[in-house]
Design a protein that fits this description.
6% helix; 850 residues; 7 helices; 16-stranded antiparallel sheet
């Protein structure tokens, strides 16, 4: 069956069972199970089991089978009262039974002879053991999130440090790129890119930085965080490291609210021991505030919960930088030991050059463009010719979260929920040289304006007590713009540099000027950036209980879409001029220093000119699919066997407008562009259709206080290819004009940037330039890696309601996706110091990944 037909068939099945769209629920619910007996130990069939949510009044019902067994599945997390009633017996009731997402709660009862109108009520006090699942997981509750210390922007991910097998969580990338301040961790030795977080069923990942969660839920909105690290159920796929299921808080029949504020500032901090006397402590303000409110809209029927979380941070930063002194700006190097040579004399390799008279550059030789550029330098405010400028700033960080959730008990059979969250953030700083940008203490020299939305709609439908359907449709979107203060300003005209600004306004801005020994001008080459990312999540799960068997079947689908503009490879879109100083040094064996560098700048003679173009917009599009079937079999009242099989499919990534991916043929140095000319969209690359992932687990209750568990499972690497195939040649083309040697010029400021024209894409085949950077898959089938995990656990309840767990966990990663640098020589080849593919006579920097 073709892929499209299979997807349509799954959608049709979902429509037939009473839901309008595909959806995704990744273990959002719990289950309650057990065996009902009488005082003699005989099983009690046909007993009525009733679960009532203490906070919302929601009820679930089922009956015991002929063996006295019962299972209530798809139970929303919360505190419950369970009642067990049978003719001829007193009704048994237990209060405070806790049901959590992705857990099985065992509750057994021995009924006493009497009337059903008589009731025995007990309180649930003992900590529950994990009696019927073999996986290794840790649950973080809202109480833990609220009461345990949360350093680093009060991020709940800090508590993942408490999960066995997790490395200490740490920040990655700048605040400008990731204002949600997601934390990154490796679990059980697996790649951090393999962790997968779902929020109320919606997949949450930063496609560009897949080691980050896309939406970092505020602490006050977190209900539970379930972190499965080994031997998970077949339902938990597309997560090679940790499968993290986060559920948000819901309203109840009582109104509840909270308000909070956390403040820290420099006045509460000790003075740095090395700080100069009389100097004020730098500004350091962190203010996190907000509140929550939740309650009933219609009692027992319709509930709401809302959370606001705001952060304002100002952290002063300072630094010492190097700017030219007044005499250097005038071309007077007489006070310095370095001899400045006239590049108009001598040979092309710098030999036999004549020094400038008096070690001063004549005024008529100084470039008018260089004079305009250096006017953006601030005056030195410290002595010396290096590290002579003290600069400081207070970077900006403003962030607001708004999250809301609605739960609707449509009827006794159908429950629906919806969550919507949005994070808005503005962060960054400014360069110390104004529109000339320059260094930016404590931050990137530009402002990042970020908006991330995460939403999901889910339902839980009961056809009968033994047949249930649940699902969620999820959507996440990130929009981010990062621009420096010079963005869009035509400095080609202002400075008089030809070729600086093209037709794209994103190319307008101060050029990147690098001067040996001095802080340069312009913004980093990765600015500006315009990023949009979307993730759609969809699946459905069908639960069917038959005697000792609890079957579960499901479909899971994720669609990733990225649209990025960021010509960051090479020098960036605004142009680059390097002044190393060889043009004013004596060759061929001289060592140009900072004075040579500044002299070359004043003469306008550059040794390297570059400019990058976003020749093709980065628009990856990719699907990820999973189907599974699982049976949880209560072989005996003490032994539970779980068997599951999952099948996953990762179709080859494409790009928007019907185009495919790009592939380098290292034997010919040609790049094939999928979907252009006569080149097929798949460019000779295929994916596996045999990604089967078995899961098996055993749980044995040795007695009421001891459980032994063991399990094994396979998970496939879910890394979105949008990341490794994001923006290489020819999507981003960097034009590099290099001087023939270190003592001559590649051009001048007056001649500017030579005309740049991208490659002809009409045939779908282009040659890879010698200086281009490229990441490409090999031809043939991609081996998407997989992770095997296995575990053996002994769990024991101790006195004082303590539980001790001793476990062995193992993982093995096979065929992990990684870069291979084919530009290096290899031992024994006789070409150790040459490129691997040296027949091209040049070093093509290329990575091939597999």
């Amino acid at each position: 069956m073709k892929l499209k037909q299979a997807v349509l068939l799954c959608a049709a099945v979902i429509l037939l069972v009473g839901w309008s769209v595909p959806a995704s629920a990744q273990v959002l619910y719990g289950s309650v199970l057990g065996v009902v007996q009488d005082a003699s130990g005989s099983v009690v069939p046909n007993a009525t089991i009733t679960l009532s949510n203490d906070a919302t009044g929601q009820t679930y019902e089922n009956k015991t089978d002929d063996a006295g067994r019962y299972t209530v599945v798809n139970v929303s997390p919360g505190a419950y009262t369970i009642k067990i009633a049978a003719n001829g017996f007193r009704t048994f009731a237990r209060k405070g039974l806790i049901v959590s997402a992705n857990t099985l709660t065992r509750e057994e009862a021995a009924l006493e002879v009497g009337s059903v109108n008589e009731q025995i009520t007990v309180e649930a006090t003992a900590t529950a053991l994990q009696t019927d699942k073999a996986d290794t997981h840790t649950e973080l509750s809202s109480k833990q999130v609220a009461n345990l210390p949360l350093p680093g922007y009060r991020n709940y991910q800090s508590l993942i440090n408490l999960v066995p097998g997790a490395t200490p969580a740490a920040f990655q990338n700048s605040v400008t790129d990731t204002p949600g301040r997601s934390l990154s961790t490796n679990v059980n030795g697996t790649n951090r890119n393999n962790n997968m977080t779902r929020i109320d069923g919606a997949s949450s990942v930063n496609l560009w930085l897949p080691h980050h969660t896309g939406y970092v839920m505020p602490a006050e909105m977190v209900d539970t965080v379930n972190v499965t690290t080994s031997a998970g159920d077949a339902e938990q796929g597309m997560a090679g490291g940790a499968a993290i299921t986060l559920t948000t808080k819901s309203g109840t029949n009582q109104f509840h609210g909270s308000a909070f504020e956390y403040n820290d500032n420099q006045h509460l901090k000790a003075r740095n021991f090395f700080q100069a006397p009389g100097v004020d402590k730098p500004v350091s303000i962190y203010n996190n505030y907000g509140g929550t409110i939740g309650g009933p809209i219609i009692k027992n029927k319709l509930f709401f919960f809302y959370s606001f979380d705001g952060t304002r941070q100002r952290t002063g930063a300072l630094g010492r930088y190097s700017v030219p002194t007044a005499d250097l700006r005038a071309g007077d190097f007489s006070a310095y030991p370095t001899v400045i040579y006239d590049p108009a004399t001598g040979t092309a390799t710098g030999e036999n050059r004549t020094p400038f008279a008096g070690n001063q550059i004549p005024a008529n030789r100084i470039s008018p463009i260089a004079q305009k550029i250096q006017a953006y330098y601030p005056a030195a405010n410290l002595p010396g010719s290096q590290n002579n400028f003290f600069g400081s700033q207070v970077p900006l960080f403003n962030r607001d979260y708004n999250d809301g959730k609605v739960n609707w008990s449509r009827n006794d059979r159908h429950q629906v929920f919806g969550h919507y969250g949005i994070m808005k953030a503005l962060s960054g700083g400014q360069g110390l040289f104004g529109d000339g940008v320059g260094p930016s203490p404590g931050s990137d020299p530009g402002l990042g304006d970020t908006r991330v939305m995460n939403m999901s709609i889910g339902h839980n439908y009961t056809f009968s007590p033994t047949l249930l359907l649940d699902g969620v449709i999820g959507y996440q979107r990130m929009d981010q713009t990062v621009k420096s203060t010079d963005y869009g300003k035509d400095f080609g005209t202002t400075l008089g540099i030809p070729g600086l600004v093209g037709n794209d306004p994103a190319q307008a801005g101060f050029p990147d000027i690098s001067i040996n020994g001095y802080d340069g001008f312009g913004a980093p080459g990765w600015m500006p950036a315009f990023r949009t990312e979307e993730t759609y999540t969809m699946s459905h799960n069908l639960s069917w209980t038959k005697g000792a068997h609890a079957f579960r079947f499901g479909f899971d689908g994720v669609n990733h879409r990225m649209t990025h503009y960021q010509p960051e490879l090479g020098a960036g879109p605004r142009g680059f001029f390097n002044f190393g100083g060889g043009q004013t040094a004596l060759g061929p064996n001289g060592s140009p220093d900072q004075y040579n560098g500044y002299a070359s700048f004043l003469l306008g003679q550059t040794d390297n000119i570059q400019k990058s173009l976003q020749y093709i917009l980065m628009t990856p599009r990719e699907w990820q699919f999973g189907w599974y079937a699982q049976d949880r079999w209560q072989i005996t009242p003490k032994l539970t066997l779980t068997m599951g099989l999952r099948y996953e499919l990762y179709p080859l990534m494409t790009r928007a407008t019907g185009k495919g991916i790009e592939r380098l043929d290292p034997a010919t140095n040609l790049v094939y562009l999928g979907g252009r000319g006569d080149v097929p969209k798949d460019v000779g690359v295929s994916v596996s259709h045999k990604l089967f992932a078995p899961k098996i687990g055993l749980a044995y209750r040795l007695n009421d206080k001891t459980v032994i568990r063991t399990g094994y499972g396979i998970n496939y690497d879910p890394l979105p290819f949008s990341r490794p195939l994001r923006g290489f040649y020819p999507l981003t083309v960097n034009f590099n004009f290099q001087a023939p040697n270190g003592y001559t010029s590649a051009g001048t400021l007056a001649t500017g940037i030579p005309p740049v024209v991208g490659p002809d894409l009409s045939t779908g085949i282009v040659s890879l330039p010698a200086v281009a950077d490229m990441r490409s898959p090999y031809a043939g089938q991609i081996h998407r890696g997989y992770i095997q995990s296995w575990t053996f656990t002994i769990e024991r309840r101790l006195p004082s309601d303590m539980v001790a767990t001793v476990a062995y966990v193992g993982t093995q990663t096979v065929h992990q996706l990684a870069d291979r640098d084919i530009n290096a020589g290899y031992p024994g080849s006789g070409i150790e110091n040459l490129p691997y593919y040296a027949s091209f006579g040049r070093a093509t920097a290329t990575n091939m990944w597999d």
